[in-house]
Amino acid sequence: MKIPLPLRVSALAIAGALAAGNAAAQTFPDFVVNEGSVTGANPATFTADKITGNYNEVISFSGNTFQAALIWDAGQFVANDGRTPVNSQLGLLFNNQYRLYGIFQGTGTTTTSGSVTGFNFAPGGSLRIFLDPNSNTTFNAPSNGGSPYTTGNSGDDILLASGTPSSGQGTLDPNLPTCTGSSGGGSGINCGNFGASSNFTLTSAGSSYFTSPVPFYNVSFQSGQLNNFSPTGTQSINGSLDVIFNSGGGNTGGPVPEPGTVALLGLGILGLAAMRRSRRH
Q1: Coil/strand/helix, residue 22
Q2: What is the rounded CA–CA span in Å between residue 4 and residue 18?
Q3: Start and end of every Ice-binding protein C-terminal domain (predicted)?
């Protein structure tokens, strides 16, 4: 699994009207992709500001701590501050298509208030982003969150970036209306959210794929959505996860969003304080 890019992942979530209002005011820094650098792909360049996708995660709980291993599969590039899909060659169907994926490992602590579980990521772990030219890599889940996802048919995969997670938060609330659904029982697909940030560094191959700005952003923000699960033992979960980039110094593409702001940006997972405040009121 590969997720190579120093990222800073900050909290991100679909937290109702409050989140939507904040997200509407947010702008995402642009970046340029050169698909001609991918073996087998057709020559093409485009500008985007967000990458959407899905994730699978194995997370293990012990007391008030957790270990998480995650694989992210990019699905689409988006422009116009996350509003307009961009045509690209991401995919699995045709010879010119390729895959973009990331591998994440992290640890942290949990807090509990009634049925609501909060997640706080600790600094450390790893993030790697890979390019799969032939779209044939397979992903193998670990037995627990302390070990990373492994890959098969990945000998031709290219590491684009790597990084170290620096912070992140999330909230799981099975009593949210979007989680319980009309039938109740907490079986819905929007039961919370999370957001994280990591430092992010491109490899030489990554600089050929992500060509602008130069130097490229050194922080990655990730946000996602949580399906319902029990925060005990080892669990396998999945959901949506989006990625944006920025510069830690704020001199490229504007200031770095605060964790709470990033959490409100996306269709995502780490619905921090916003979700808690929404629930209390």
Answers
A1: helix
A2: 33
A3: 255-277
Q: Are 224 and 75 in contact (CB under 8 A)?
A: no
Does residue 165 have a cis peptide bond before it, meaning omega lies within 30 degrees of 0? no
Tokens representing 53?
């996708």
Chain centre distance of CA 139? 17
Give dist(CA 218, CA 201) in Å, integer: 6
Contact at 8 Å (CB) between 175 and 136? no
Residue 150: φ, ψ to 5°: -115, 165
Q: What are the respective helix, strand and coil percentages of the chain, to the nearest 5?
A: 10, 45, 45
CB 69 within 8 A of CB 55: no
Strand partners, 169: 120, 195
What would the pLDDT profile of 68-115 be if each residue is shown by its tens digit? 999 999 999 999 999 999 999 999 888 899 999 999 999 999 999 999
Q: Could you tell me where the beta strands, DSSP code E, fall in the chain?
A: 31-34, 45-48, 50-62, 65-79, 84-86, 99-113, 116-121, 126-132, 138-140, 150-152, 158-163, 165-172, 192-199, 201-202, 210-212, 219-225, 234-246
3-state secondary structure 45-56: EEEECEEEEEEE
- The residue with tokens 């957790």 is 66
Q: What sections of 90-217 are H helices per DSSP? A: 177-180, 204-209
Give the model confidence (pLDDT) of 185-234 as tens digits. Answer: 556 778 999 999 999 999 999 999 999 999 999 999 999 999 999 999 99
What would the two tokens of residue 26 be?
């947010």
CA distances from residue 145 to 72, 89, 141, 183, 229 in whole angstroms, order as listed: 15, 32, 9, 31, 15
Cα–Cα distance for residue pair 179/227, rounded to 1 Å: 8
Token pair of 62, please? 């012990």
Q: Which two tokens stand for residue 96?
A: 């010119």
